[in-house]
Design a protein that fits this description.
By secondary structure, this protein is an alpha+beta fold. It has two domains: 40 residues; 119 residues, no CATH class. It is 30% helix and 31% strand. It is built from three helices and eleven strands. The strands form two sheets. Strands 3, 4, 6, 7, 8 and 10 form a six-stranded antiparallel β-sheet that branches. A five-stranded mixed β-sheet has the order 2-1-5-9-11. The termini are far apart. The C terminus is likely disordered.
């Protein structure tokens, strides 16, 4: 009997150790789970000095009417800057009469990209300048040949490289409706 009682006590003692070890293990697991959950939801990632900002490409646009050789007006009367209106959507607009104009596009100091272009809308037709580099010292200059009075031109600076090019640096771009161009060619032939 003595051996049996001794065995029972060892079993009770072993059971108590197992029971206490299990409880301590469960408490450790609960503590780890709670601290991991708290760490997950309280984590904050930040990096000082790193900001995400989109590219900015802005242009100063100057449109000047060229002197007509058929006019006897003084140079002061025929030459002059055309008023350009800034619209709320970031576009610039001007209304031009028939004639030739010198257009000068120069990047502004707040430009943050290395390259851009200018999209010009005349009615439903879009025209694109060649790529304008922001590190160039020269302005992007071209001649605008307007063939119809009251032509409104919308200028939209955009960063990147144009998909198509309608006007290159120091070249001429003729704008107006196709019917007006055909009528003008017919009149010149007569």
């Amino acid at each position: 009997m003595n051996t049996q009682k001794n065995t029972e006590k060892l079993t009770d003692k072993a059971f108590s150790r197992l029971w206490i070890t299990s409880i301590v293990g469960i408490l450790i697991c609960i503590a780890c789970l709670c601290s991991t959950t708290w760490a997950w939801f309280s984590a904050d990632q930040s990096a000082e000095g790193n900001t995400v900002q989109s590219g900015n490409f802005n242009l100063d646009i100057s449109v000047t009417k060229e002197q007509s050789s058929s006019t006897v007006e003084s140079r002061e009367q025929t030459l002059g800057d055309i008023e350009i209106t800034e619209l709320s959507n970031g576009k610039l607009s001007c209304t031009l009469e028939k004639g030739q104009y010198t257009v000068v596009l120069k990047t502004t100091p707040d430009t943050t990209v290395s390259r851009g272009f200018c999209k010009m809308m005349v009615g439903e037709t879009a025209y694109y300048t060649d790529s304008i580099s922001t590190d160039a010292t020269d302005s992007f200059t071209f001649t605008l040949d307007v063939i119809e009075d009251g032509t409104t031109v919308l200028f939209s600076p955009a960063w990147g490289v144009p998909a198509e090019v309608d006007v290159e640096w120091n070249k001429t771009l003729q704008i107006g409706t196709a019917t007006t161009v055909a009528q003008q060619e017919t009149e010149q032939q007569e």
